[in-house]
Amino acid sequence: MSTYLLPDQNGCHHGASINAQNDIQTDEQHMINNLLATLPKAKAWRSEHVFLYKGFWLSSEVIKGLLLIHKHFTPQPTDIFLAAFMKCGTTWLKALMFATANRHRYKLSDHPLLRTGPQSAFPFIDTHIFLDYPATNFDNLPVPRLFATHFAHGLLPTSITSTCKFVYVCRDPKDALVSKWHFLSKLRSKELPPLPFDEAYELFCNGVSEYGPFWDHVLGYWKASQVHVVLEY
User: Fold this and answer.
1) Catalytic site residue 150?
2) What is the pTM of this model?
3) H helical segments located in the chain
4) Would the pLDDT of 182 be above 50?
């Protein structure tokens, strides 16, 4: 379930999980399944496989979310995206961005971050659009709308990358690797054998991990920063 704060309503939005009976149309689901069947796949860290889509290794659920973003998400020029490779330390920055963008809405004594963690400060669009399809509820967010993503710059629609603002967080890859391995090991399916760290290290160095390769991810945003204003932390 995906939850995020609604500043103007002093509450939270709780996304409703999609299912075969309500939201994803049959033809869309068939299209996604047919696409996955054509993609190269490799060993994943959390699930059984990741799929190579346009140069990046993604889980099947994340690919579904990406396709839904391309089809249904309507960006606004005032939107701000906090982008990063997985486990690069965005929690603190989420709190700072939310507090700054909404500083005129709250007093310190009733600030929602005193009750809710930074992870719920604003939507993680990669999966929220999948959980709350087709993302029409984003219309209830005040301007500027804040979103978080792990998607590489080149995977996002040009309607987003050419008009919206981005804050990109880069972390030492050694620290990102260790943090990611610990995090995904806890989430890894119990039906799968544990992923040893030495194997995760080799996969990471070969670019094979969720949202990888790491350096392609970083370089994509760095190159974009030469054209558009991107704040790198």
Assistant:
1) yes
2) 0.87
3) 26-38, 60-72, 91-101, 125-131, 158-161, 173-187, 197-205, 214-225
4) yes
